[in-house]
């Protein structure tokens, strides 16, 4: 019996040891599992905090890219000027029109009064100008207007830069057809030579002033004029009295923007409807 008891005690003791070992392993596993869960939760919280911190910056960068706005250049609306000699003097005569942008303005308007021509030269004179002092002058000349005096001669090169809207037909108040004047153009007139009468035998080449005017296509080429007022005589055309519309710039030089505007204005010169 003693032997049996010893065996029973030994088995009981062995079982107890196995149970205790199993319990210890389970508790350690639980502790490790809890630790892993804690680490996982901490990592998730850190990721959420990082995402919350970086998300506004990303949104800010995206908003900044969307705020790119293209710029535009406004365009000026055109105004139309109508010559007034017929209206103010109750005459039957040609009436002309031209268009101009809002950054240009009418500086002066003058018509013959009591039979006295304006400045002794004009039936009507209208001056259009911009802020820099570039002018476009419309002139209806008195038939006996003197011009072309002086001791200096200029050589003018005339070249077409655009077609003109003016089409000559039969001027109001006349029965004569002026269509023989042909097509009209906007021309660039450039002083390319100078000569002092009685001194020089030939022209000296110069890079002189430039002008723009409405003239018949047949005017294209090289011309000689006397005195600076000779440029007005060069740009005249009879309809039926002599008319001219010519652009001049301070110092004889235009900016490219002014050239574009001047050509547009002169191109619009036409007989009023």
Characterise the protein shown here.
- With 273 residues, the chain is an alpha+beta fold.
- It contains four helices and 13 strands.
- Strands 3, 4, 5, 6, 7, 8, 9, 10, 11 and 12 form a ten-stranded antiparallel beta sheet that branches. Strands 1-2-13 form a three-stranded antiparallel beta sheet.
- The radius of gyration is 47 Å and the shape is globular.
- Residues 15-76 have low confidence and may be disordered.
Please sum up the structure shown.
By secondary structure, the protein is of the alpha+beta class. Helices cover 32% and strands 32% of the residues. The strands form two sheets. Strands 3, 4, 5, 6, 7, 8, 9, 10, 11 and 12 form a ten-stranded antiparallel beta sheet that branches. A three-stranded antiparallel beta sheet has the order 1-2-13.
Describe how the helices and strands are arranged.
Layout: H1 2-66, E1 78-82, H2 85-89, E2 96-101, E3 104-111, E4 122-130, E5 135-141, E6 152-163, E7 184-196, E8 204-205, E9 210-216, E10 221-226, H3 230-234, E11 237-238, E12 242-248, H4 256-267, E13 270-271
Antiparallel strand pairs: 1-2, 2-13, 3-4, 4-5, 5-12, 6-7, 6-10, 7-8, 7-9, 9-12, 11-12
């Amino acid at each position: 019996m003693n032997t049996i008891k010893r065996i029973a005690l030994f088995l009981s003791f062995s079982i107890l040891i196995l149970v205790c070992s199993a319990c210890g392993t389970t508790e350690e596993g639980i502790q490790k599992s809890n630790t892993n869960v804690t680490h996982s939760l901490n990592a998730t919280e850190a990721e959420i905090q990082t995402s919350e911190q970086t998300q506004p910056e990303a949104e800010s960068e995206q908003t900044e890219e969307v705020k790119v706005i293209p710029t535009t250049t406004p365009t000026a609306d055109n105004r139309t000027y109508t010559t007034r000699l017929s209206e103010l003097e109750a005459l039957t005569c040609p009436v002309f029109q031209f268009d101009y942008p809002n950054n240009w303005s009418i500086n002066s308007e003058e018509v013959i009064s009591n039979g006295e021509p304006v400045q002794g030269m004009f039936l009507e004179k209208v001056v259009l100008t911009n802020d820099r002092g570039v002018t476009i002058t419309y002139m209806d000349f008195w038939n006996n207007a003197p011009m072309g005096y002086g001791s200096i001669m200029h050589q003018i090169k005339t070249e077409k830069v655009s077609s003109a809207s003016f089409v000559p037909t039969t001027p109001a108040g006349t029965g004569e057809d002026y269509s023989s004047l042909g097509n009209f153009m906007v021309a660039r007139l450039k002083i390319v030579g100078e000569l002092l009468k009685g001194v020089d035998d030939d022209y000296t080449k110069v890079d002189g002033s430039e002008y723009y005017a409405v003239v018949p296509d047949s005017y294209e080429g090289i011309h000689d004029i006397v005195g600076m007022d000779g440029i007005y005589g060069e740009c005249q055309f009879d309809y039926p009295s002599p008319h001219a519309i010519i652009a001049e710039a301070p110092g004889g030089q235009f900016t490219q923007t002014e050239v574009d505007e001047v050509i547009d204005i002169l191109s619009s010169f036409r007989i009023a409807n």
